[in-house]
Amino acid sequence: WETLSTAELAMRAFSDSFLAHYLEADAGALLGSVGAYRLEGPGVQLFSEIRGDYFTILGLPLTGLLDLLRREGVLIP
Question: How many other CB atoms sit within 10 Å of the CB of residue 43?
Answer without folding.
Answer: 19
